[in-house]
Write a structure and sequence with these properties.
Layout (H helix, E strand, L loop, with lengths): L1 E3 L8 E2 L11 E6 L2 E9 L16 E2 L8 H13 L3 H9 L2 H5 L22 E5 L3 H11 L5 E4 L3 H13 L5 E3 L5 H12 L5 E4 L12 E4 L17 H12 L2 E6 L4 H7 L12 E5 L4 E3 L8 E3 L1 H12 L3 E5 L6 E2 L2 E2 L14 E4 L2 E4 L5 E2 L13 E2 L2 E2 L5 H7 L5 E4 L6 H11 L4 E5 L14 E4 L13 H14 L8 E6 L14 H15 L6 E6 L5 H10 L3 E3 L7 E6 L2 H9 L11 E5 L2
Parallel strand pairs: 6-11, 7-9, 7-10, 8-9, 10-11, 12-26, 15-24, 15-25, 23-24, 25-26
Antiparallel strand pairs: 1-2, 1-4, 3-4, 3-5, 13-14, 16-22, 17-21, 18-19, 19-20, 27-29, 27-30, 28-29
Helix pairs in contact: 1-2, 1-7, 14-15
Length: about 600
């Protein structure tokens, strides 16, 4: 029999067994000197391998599969579609207890789902500016059917679940974030049909549930992408789930992704932010000089005046600079060489130490440049930590706090910080701070570097910048009473023109450019890092498979590849993920 052993390798392993087992059953198998839990991929009464060359399984854990058939197919698809292999997909989508061999009840079919693949689900869309309008629509869609409702943020999932309970919808489950017994119990309950609908964050893609409807809110958000390897995209997995079980797929949000806009051309509301959106040319304003940074932070007079005005009225103002830490892109002041992490990412200064933006690795700041021995290390782009002294001097009698993915930590700290802002204050934050609009009345949001996000070396940079400003205009409580300031060197020009024209105008222009250079959604794009000395071999293999390989840094451990079809690229990479490999590359795939 062929067995998939969860791990970074892509291939299956062959073993002998005295009995034929159904695909999806768990077995204990010897791997080297240890025993591992594996999942039966296929089983046959004959083999071309000599009996003495194939090791026997150690034991059978399940006589019957514990996974619904559709989930087994979904995991297999994810392993191919995200270039991570079925073993890694199993690790990403199953509770740890199943991977460690803990006994769970066998699966018993409870519905007609999980049959052969169909051409595709019926697709509906709901792209509306106001959160409450979309929420009401989703509630109407899950009144009397089995459904999954996914959000890119757990806090929004929790808020919607409370709304569903308040609306009298019974049989619901809030999908847990943490693991352990709570998640295992939820997994078994969902698999066995003990709930009618499930609401959750990106992790709800792993729910073993066969819904009639799959709702994906804010489907264009990068929040659906897993932070850890393998970097699965929850939106894509949930869309495939709908296809596997024949469910109706409902896509929603404020701004559609490029793939959805290109594929179904959803309708757009005609309402615009109008005068609520204020463009300020920073070339005519002040700047904050940041010690240790080669660039300043622009701060226009109009931004300061409006900030002081609203805070003096007991209101909360957000200053958004979507860069964590004190300063980013650390490099030598003499030779200009960047301080690079072994993973290929760049370092920023955060809390007095270096932190890699890609993998999170922490390190002390070197006394001298590793390349030339120069004594001066400086950063390029200041982050939110660098704003604190100036912000405190501007509003000395009100709270000034930082809000990002790292701060505040935990629900209690989050609740206490929100409470401290009840009488007004200034929040210095990344895009994550926009969630405060769900809890507080925020009359003013200021984007201090409106060009920063669009400058990123990323094909989706303009869409990300556009979506963040749109979110600022419409998210949360009383958005019609909110002003949004966008400080920019090209105020109201380029991609910013579409902020008052609409996302149809934005995407028509953006996709025209992407089509010319064959970027997603017209082709796939993958970033492959941690190559372990195999950079040239991997590049040659991908080129032979028809991929266009790009090397952004010849001295780095990273390549990019653009391609049209997944399968040839999967086959080209497969040999670098064998069980005896010294190291395993990491792959991040972009489809839009």
């Amino acid at each position: 029999m062929d067995v998939v052993v969860p791990g970074p390798w892509w291939g299956s392993l062959s073993y002998r067994s005295d009995e034929l087992l159904i695909p999806g059953c768990r077995v204990s198998v010897p791997v080297g000197r240890t025993k591992r839990v594996g999942f039966v991929l296929s089983s046959s009464s004959s083999s071309s391998w000599p009996e003495g060359k194939v090791r026997a399984i150690s034991s059978v854990i399940d006589g019957e599969p514990v996974l619904p058939p559709y989930l087994w197919r979904l995991i297999s698809w994810a392993g191919r579609a995200f270039l991570c292999g079925q073993g890694q997909a199993l690790m990403a989508m199953l509770p740890k207890e199943l991977l460690s061999g803990e006994k769970v009840p066998a699966f018993k079919s409870i519905s007609q789902g999980g049959g052969p693949e169909i051409d595709g689900p019926e697709v509906l869309s709901c792209y509306r500016w106001r959160d409450i309008d979309r929420s009401d629509f989703y509630l109407s869609m899950i009144q009397s059917c089995r459904a999954i409702v996914a959000f890119p943020e757990q806090s929004r999932a929790e808020s919607f679940f409370r709304s569903a309970v308040k609306a009298g919808l019974d049989g619901g489950m809030l999908w847990p974030v943490t693991g352990g017994a709570k998640k295992l119990n939820a997994w078994i309950s969902a698999r066995d049909g003990e709930c009618r609908f499930i609401v959750g964050g990106p992790g709800v893609m792993a729910a073993p549930f066969e819904p009639d409807r799959v709702i994906i809110e804010d489907e264009g958000s990068e929040g659906y992408r897993s932070l850890r390897s393998p970097r699965l995209n929850g939106r894509s997995v949930l869309s495939r789930m709908a296809k596997e079980v024949g469910a109706k797929l409902i896509l929603g949000g404020r701004v559609p992704s490029s793939r959805v806009f290109k594929g179904i051309s959803p309708d757009e509301e005609r309402v615009r932010p109008g005068k609520r959106l204020i463009f300020i040319d920073v070339k005519e304003g002040h700047t904050l000089d940041i010690p240790g940074a080669s660039r300043d932070i622009p701060l226009a007079q109009g931004t300061m005046e409006r900030t002081i005005r609203d805070i003096s009225k007991g209101k909360v103002v957000l200053w958004i600079l979507d860069r964590k830490g004190y300063v980013g892109d650390l490099r030598c002041d003499d030779c200009g060489a960047p301080l690079a992490c072994p993973c290929g990412g760049s370092f920023r200064l955060e809390g007095g130490r270096m932190s890699c933006f890609r993998c999170g690795r922490k390190a002390s700041v070197p006394d001298t440049c590793p390349d030339c021995g120069g004594p001066m290390i400086t950063g390029q782009n200041p982050g939110i930590e660098a704003l604190m002294p100036s912000a405190k001097s501007m509003v000395p009698d009100r709270p000034v706090v930082v809000w990002s993915a790292d701060e505040p930590k935990g629900k209690i700290a989050k609740r206490d910080m929100i409470k401290s802002l009840s009488s007004g204050g200034l929040v210095l934050g990344t895009r994550k701070a926009l969630e405060l609009c769900d809890y507080l009345d925020v009359p003013l949001i200021c984007w201090l570097d409106g060009d920063g996000e669009a400058r990123r070396p990323d094909h989706g940079a303009r869409h990300s910048a556009y979506s963040m400003v749109v979110e600022s205009c419409w998210r949360g409580n009383n958005p019609e009473d909110r002003q949004v300031i966008l400080q920019s060197r090209r105020a109201g020009k380029g991609w910013q023109m579409a902020l008052n024209s609409g996302w149809t105008v934005f995407w028509n222009r953006e996709l025209e450019e992407r089509r010319d250079v064959e970027l997603p959604p017209f082709r796939y794009l993958a970033e492959i890092s941690c190559l372990g000395g195999d950079k040239d071999r991997v590049s040659d293999s991908l080129s032979s498979a028809g991929g266009d390989v790009m090397d952004p840094d010849p001295s780095g451990d990273l390549i990019w590849v653009a391609f049209t079809h997944i399968l040839p690229i999967y086959r080209a990479l497969e040999r670098f993920f064998s069980i005896g490999s010294r190291s395993y590359p990491k792959v991040v795939l972009w489809t839009d």
